[in-house]
Amino acid sequence: SWFLSHDYIPFHHERAQGMRILTVFLYLNDVEEGGGTRFTDLDITVEPRRGRALLWPSVLDSDSSLRDHRTHHEAMPVIRGVKYGANGWYHERDFKTPYASGCS
């Protein structure tokens, strides 16, 4: 794998937008071989297919200050072909207004 990741970022508690609560990842193309997204603690690998989207939480429903430890994930290497994807993060609060005013 490239690296083990989690979308929980502790210092976001102090930021205007709050925590990343959800991540969405969209596969933009088919990959000949490899390139899946593996959730290590769940032992699930999702293979890339054009138009397939993944959605996972970064925090617990019961307390958005606590990391959801089930959603550690990693991008598996592309063996053949190329992989294109797009991701987005949903935060607890609006971040555009504070950033437009120069706040971080």
Short description:
Helix content is 5%, strand content 41%.
Provide the gyration radius in Å: 15 Å
Percent of residues in helical segments? under 10%
Counting DSSP H or I runs of 4 or more residues, the number of helices is 1
In the predicted model, the low-confidence regions spanning at least 5 consecutive residues are none
Mean pLDDT, all residues: 89
- Beta content: 35-45%
**Shape designation:** globular
β-strand number = 11
Write the H/E string, N to C.
Answer: EEEEEEEEEEEH
Distance between the termini: 32 Å
Structural class: mainly beta
Strand order of the largest sheet: 1-9-4-5
Main β sheet profile: 4 strands, antiparallel
Q: Which helices and strands occur, and which strands form pairs?
A:
Layout: E1 4-5, E2 20-27, E3 33-34, E4 37-39, E5 44-46, E6 53-57, E7 59-60, E8 63-67, E9 73-75, E10 78-80, E11 85-91, H1 96-100
Antiparallel strand pairs: 1-9, 2-6, 2-11, 3-10, 4-5, 4-9, 7-8
Task: Describe it.
5% of the residues lie in helices and 41% in strands. The strands form four sheets. A four-stranded antiparallel sheet has the order 1-9-4-5, with no helix packed on it. A three-stranded antiparallel sheet has the order 6-2-11, with no helix packed on it. Strands 3-10 form a two-stranded antiparallel sheet. The chain has one helix spanning 96-100, and strands at 4-5, 20-27, 33-34, 37-39, 44-46, 53-57, 59-60, 63-67, 73-75, 78-80, 85-91. The chain is mainly beta and 104 residues long. Strand 4 (37-39) and strand 5 form a beta hairpin. It is globular and about 45 Å long.
